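Box 3.1 A note on notation
Throughout this textbook, protein chains are presented in two layers. The first layer is the amino acid sequence; the second is a token string describing backbone geometry. Keep the layers aligned when reading.
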Amino acid sequence: MLQQFNPKNKNLIVHVNGELLPREQAKVSVFDSSVQGGDAVWEGLRIYQEGAFMLDQHLTRLQDSAKALHFAHIPSKSEIKAAIAETLKANGMTQDTHIRLTLTRGEKITSGMDPRLNQKGSCLIVLAEWKPPVYDNKQGIRVVSSAIRRNSPQFLDSKIHHANLLNNILAKIQANICGVDAGIMLDDRGFVAELNDTNLFMIKKGKLFTPFANACLPGITRSLVMEITRELGIDVIEKDLSLTEFYTADEVFATGTMGELTPIVEIDGRNTKNETDNTLLVQIQRSFREIIPHYCEQLTD
């Protein structure tokens, strides 16, 4: 699905390194580490009427990722929350908003790979847009298995939520060329890892399965879905899963902040056919919607 430009976003105010700037003026230096080497970490946040969803968990992951990359300066949660609140207030946003929160290593004194060249502190960017969930969660999406493998921890650990997304982008390019919505990325052993942008689940004979979070991001929505499902009395199993198992599943869906819970109706040209009378996904989706307010934090008056 190709996202469309929302005219409401024409005059956005963006928070860049402590300043609130109009969209056209919101920029970082050509010496910033994000430009020089994709050296940054990020989080996607969703703002509902009740507040920012799973905010503390997202900020913890942002800080952990920056720590893993040995950033010299990592802002506190209170500093980040203040920047988010200022940005939302400046844009008059209280719901239906997606935030791309980025923390770069900062500006370098000269171009180069060495982090010791970053001597001006990190750079925090809060980009808030009016944006609904990016997928159609009623009609579902079509996906194709990608030739691009997900990184294993021996190369670049997916538990670091870094901004070097070429691995995922290449899989998305392949999906675009195939005329589908997303690409399934396998790990280096050939087992399913995740989509190029969200985590994956499958339902078979009344049980919920998901790949081990070895070569994929252990997503925040993923963890919440597993918790919800267990509370519904449904078995949740993490294991190595092959494409064949997904081809023959009763239901398949993706999870993520950007799309919530999205049915997958076709994999590699094979329709996902529910052979049972149970529609567990509907139950999980309903429970997810019901608990959203309980996991939101208000940042604006």
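The chain has a mean pLDDT of 95. The radius of gyration is 20 Å.
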